[in-house]
Amino acid sequence: MKKSLFIALWVLSALLFAKPTIKFTSPNSDFGETTVGKTLDINFEFANVGSDVLYIKNIIPSCGCTTAELKKKEYRPGEKGTITVKFNTSGYNGRVIKTITVMTSDPDSPEVRLTLSGTVIVKDFAQADLKPDHISFGAISVGKTYVRKLNLTNLGTLDLRVIELSHGPEASLEFKANLLAPRNSTEITLHFTPFEKGTFNSMLKIRTNDYRNPYVFVRLEAQVN
After folding, report:
1. Which domains does the chain have, with CATH numbers?
2. SS3 label, residue 7
3. For 103-131, how does the pLDDT look when each residue is reduced to its tens digit (9 = 90+)?
4. What is the pLDDT averaged over residues 129-154?
5. Alpha carbon distance 74, 57 (integer Å)
6. Is the predicted pLDDT of residue 84 greater than 90, yes or no?
7. Nearest Cα to 88, choosing from 124, 127, 58, 61?
């Protein structure tokens, strides 16, 4: 009778104190150096070292460039699993740190923060250089058109493309070419026609595929009489 009671108490105690425990081989992964544009596969291995079933409730990457996959969500005591993370390096340059939050049923670790880090290197790129970056028309007359020349140069190693122009109605641009091979230049003609008298101060903006500095600017100033 005493033995049966002891066994019953032992089983009850085991049930009451059973809990899942998640343990990662390492919550941090350094991918070293990689070139921009690659998609990296990084694995985070874990095990349920507890005494009850472990549930992975959710996995939340810190941004859209990172995704996480897991084959199933339930892990018995002693069972292992792998979270596969994909990181798209497009648009990055330099040191990168990304995090993934894992929500679990482990009462001691309901949230586990995984970290991947490394350096993204840019070997080939387009680089826009626009000159001059400031044009002062001085004292000019309302309604009259004034013409100035700009020079756009591609200092990079990939073709440079002009994607978008932003400027006021007083300005218009004419391009000899909107696609530049590496180390080439093109002339841009600026037509400026002021519509109102007074001090004019505005910014002309050109967007290119130079992803490190996608915008080049020219400040326009004039005293319109």
Report:
1. 20-121 (2.60.40.10), 128-224 (2.60.40.10)
2. helix
3. 999 999 999 999 999 999 888 889 999 99
4. 96
5. 9
6. yes
7. 61
CB 220 within 8 A of CB 202: yes
Torsional sign, CA 174, 176, 178, 183? negative
Range scoring the smallest mean pLDDT among 16-20, 46-50, 208-212:
16-20
Residue 9: its H or E element: helix 2-17
State the CB neighbour count (10 A cutoff) for residue 85: 20
Query: Taking a C-beta distance cutoff of 8 angstroms, is the pair 152, 183 a contact?
Result: no
> According to the model, what pLDDT value does residue 52 have?
97
Residue 42: which of 92, 89, 78, 76 has the closest Cα? 89
Q: Which whole-number Å values give the CA distances from 83 to 27, 56, 100, 140, 217, in the listed order?
A: 11, 10, 10, 66, 45
**What is the structure's pLDDT at 11?**
46
Which residue in this structure is represented by tokens 């000159």? Answer: 131
Whether the model clears a pTM of 0.85, i.e. scores above it, the answer is: no
